[in-house]
Amino acid sequence: MAQNLVDYLPFPCKVTSITDLTAQEKLFRFERIDGKPFNHRPGQFMQVSIVGIGEAPISVSSSLTRGSYLEMGVRKIGALTTAMHELNVGDKLGMRGAFGTWFPLEELRGKELILIAGGCGLAPLRSLIQYVEDRPKEFAKATIVYGAKSQDDVLYKNEIYNWQYGTTFDCLCTVDAVKTGTCWDGNVGLITTLIPKLSFDSKNTVAVICGPPIMYKFVLQELFKKGLTPENIVVSLERHMKCGVGKCGHCTIDHLYCCMDGPVFWLSQIKDVANAL
Ligand SMILES: Cc1cc2nc3c(=O)[nH]c(=O)nc-3n(C[C@H](O)[C@H](O)[C@H](O)COP(=O)(O)OP(=O)(O)OC[C@H]3O[C@@H](n4cnc5c(N)ncnc54)[C@H](O)[C@@H]3O)c2cc1C
Ligand code: FES
After folding, report:
1. Which ligand is nearest to the CA of 237?
2. Helices in the chain by DSSP H: which ranges?
3. How far apart are CA 36 and CA 55, in angstroms?
4. How far is the CA of 259 from the centre of ligand 2 (A)?
5. 74: phi > 0 → left, psi -120 to 50 → alpha, else beta; which?
6. Residue ranges around ligand 2 (CB below 6 Å)
7. 60, 69, 139, 162 from 102: Cα distances, Å
8. How far does CA 215 lie from the centroid of its chain?
9. Are the CB atoms for 185 and 52 separated by under 8 Å?
């Protein structure tokens, strides 16, 4: 629950780098103008604003273990995100937050992790992936499973290469389809085709899922077949948000507020909540 006026007042931030990820997505790195750290946790989101344009929730895409900066992967879709895509290094914008629940690092410690992202869902999950990459001894094992529509839509290509060929992760990547006349030497098929290939001890494993709404039902079916239960599955949900702090009611999922009770939930918390998944 927002307790302080400070939750409603954007603080100014400066863009310190911009990287093209795909034709529609850019990665932004920000620092606070006052030099303070963002104090974000993996899985949380910020309310990003540009004066005269508007405000929107955007996930934290980097881990605090990397330093005091904050990164966001942003898809150009509407007013605010289009204005963000027109920013240059050195430009300023406002942020509130960090808001919402985060990936339950305490409960994940010592577990095998299956980190599953579809499309833009890799943006929030990357904050947890970086945390695991920086503190690998805290976890028994970590596998990344990522699916994109086509090879042109694959985010963080260089990082995926490092996750695939480094020692911290097993990393499986697939595209739904290969465009005619283009090359892709990886797996082709929906993300659900990768899950039967995984081998893990279901008693000591937690799966974390971030992706488009359509993905959850089918991914969950495959995970249940492998012996996982709602008690060892974590999901990150997206809802239309305005205030980000439990006041406006735009983000409700039955009796829950996605902005405050979520966006990160244990599946056991929401499995019986109407329209949650
Ligand atoms: C917790 C959370 C985390 C998120 N993380 C990210 C992230 O990491 N990266 C990212 O890129 N996005 C993220 N999003 C999504 C992002 O907040 C939305 O895409 C947001 O709407 C973008 O704001 P905008 O002003 O650019 O788009 P808007 O102008 O709000 O438009 C967004 C889309 O909605 C449509 N739309 C707008 N108004 C209406 C209306 N009245 N009726 C019907 N359709 C309408 C537009 O046509 C467009 O397709 C996140 C959302 C949540 C809730
Ligand atoms: S966004 Fe306003 S209550 Fe959640």
Report:
1. 1
2. 79-85, 105-108, 122-134, 157-165, 213-225, 267-270
3. 22
4. 6
5. beta
6. 241-244, 246-251, 257, 259
7. 10, 18, 17, 25
8. 14
9. no
CA 241 to ligand 2: nearest atom: 1
pLDDT of 3 > 60? The answer is: no
Ligand 1 neighbourhood includes 58 CB (under 6 angstroms): yes
Structure tokens at 271: 């499995």
- Domains of the chain in start order, with CATH, are 5-99 (2.40.30.10), 105-236 (3.40.50.80)
Three-state SS for 68? coil
How many residues make up the chain in this entry? 277
- As a whole number of Å, the CA-based R_g of the chain is 18
Task: Supply 65's token pair.
Answer: 């273990």
**196-253 residue pLDDT tens:** 999 999 999 999 999 998 999 999 999 999 999 999 999 999 999 999 999 999 999 9
Q: Which region holds residue 172: left if phi is over 0, alpha if psi is between -120 and 50, else beta?
A: beta
